Amino acid sequence: MCPLTIGKLKAMPGETVSGPVRVPGTGLALPVTIIRGEKAGPAALISAGIHPSEYVGIAALQELAEELSPADLRGDLILIRLMNPTGFERRARSAVPEDGKNLNRVFPGSPAGTASERIAHAVSSEFFPRAAFYVDLHSGDACESLVPMIFSAGKCEPRVASASREMAEAADARYLVVSQWPSGQAYGHAAASGIPAILLERGQLGLWSREEAELCKADVRRILARIGLYRGAAPPPRRHRPRRLRQVGQLECPATGLWYPERTAGDRVRSGRPAGEIRDLYGKLLAVPKFAFDGVILYQNESLSAVEGESLVTYGGDPE
Ligand SMILES: [Zn+2]
Questions:
Q1: What is the 3-state secondary structure (H, E, C) of 206-243?
Q2: What is the pLDDT of residue 93?
Q3: 182 alpha carbon to ligand 1 midpoint, in Å?
Q4: Ligand 1 centre and the CA of 283: distance in Å?
Q5: How far is ligand 1, taken at its centre, from the CA of residue 231, in Å?
Q6: 75: pLDDT confidence band, cut at 50, 70 and 90?
Q7: What residues have their beta carbon closer than 5 A to ion ligand 1?
Q8: What is the Å distance from ligand 1's center to 38 Cα?
Q9: Cα of 139 from ligand 1 centre, angstroms
Q10: Comparing C-alpha atoms, which of 254, 152, 147, 260 is closest to residue 204?
Q11: Which percentage of the chain shows pLDDT scores above 70?
Q12: Domains and CATH numbers, the chain
């Protein structure tokens, strides 16, 4: 029987092992838990806190690390409990404080790069090769409203895309988006490397609640059951089956100023209707961004501050 080794952590079948895994070339370490079933099976990696103020996933993964036991598993579970620990301490939004970069845009990273690139490289080189599946937990950031949804990797081999979608379909969420979006995201890079991968979004506005953490934990159990890794008590029945959105649009902010949205995440929108108004600091109307098709708002900037070039609203077209 071989140990599963990551950094200085070593776990044998039937064992749970927790501790820090250092990120070479930085003073940083990732808090990691490895839980190995007695019996062999698939290995899954789950991470939270790549965006350090997206708390539902972080809270859920902290609890799952304590609640799941080797007896619940047939296979191995590797948990990166918080991928951006200094960002969490400083309540940073999307960035790693050491370099100001968005960790979910720099994958696969570089061993000679800045702090974000080195974290990404450590995850890509130490964790991804040991995982057959990957789940990345996110939420709506501070100032971001969001409807529970799932991204499944689509910019990868068809076999990987369909396995990703199958995982995503196990979750309790309203919408599923098969993502063709840019590289640099952890789950996108995992999928491009042949690992079926999804990104779960639950919670909003930089907050978390007991109910949302429970729903997130139930989702993780359902997804792990779907891939044959989780054999423990079944989670409660889900409320939604995710419906795939055929089209996703983003309204980019055309001018810096004050933002007065008309609607919020989860609301329906109509083609040609205004998403809201942007005014300058003297009250003058600068712009009225409009929706290009009928659909539903997935997530939206709820801050009064709007910055040119940033995303204001992401919305999806009607489901299949
Ligand atoms: Zn995020």
A1: CCCCHHHHHHHHHHHHHHHHHCCCECCCCCCCCCCCCE
A2: 86
A3: 14
A4: 32
A5: 29
A6: very high
A7: 51, 54, 138
A8: 33
A9: 6
A10: 147
A11: 99
A12: 4-226 (3.40.630.10), 245-316 (2.40.50.100)
Distance between Cα 40 and ligand 1 center (Å): 32
Interval 58-73 mean pLDDT: 98
**Contact yes or no for 141/51 (Cβ under 8 A):** yes
pLDDT of residue 181: 73
Looking at this protein, which amino acid is placed at residue 76? D
Ligand 1 centroid distance, CA of 88 (Å): 13
Express each pLDDT in 181-218 by its tens digit: 768 999 999 999 999 999 999 999 999 999 999 999 99
- CA-to-CA separations, 14 to 72, 78, 127, 132, in angstroms, rounded: 10, 13, 20, 19
Q: How far is the CA of 136 from the centre of ligand 1 (A)?
A: 9
Distance 214 CA to ligand 1 centre (A): 19
pTM: 0.96
Q: How far is the CA of 183 from the centre of ligand 1 (A)?
A: 15
**Residue 248: per-residue pLDDT:** 93
Neighbours of 215 (CB within 10 A): 22
pLDDT given at position 180: 84
Q: How far is the centre of ligand 1, averaged over its atoms, from the C-alpha of 48 (Å)?
A: 9
Distance in Å, CA 185 to ligand 1 centroid = 10
- At 141-186, the pLDDT tens digits run 999 999 999 999 999 999 999 999 999 999 999 999 999 876 899 9
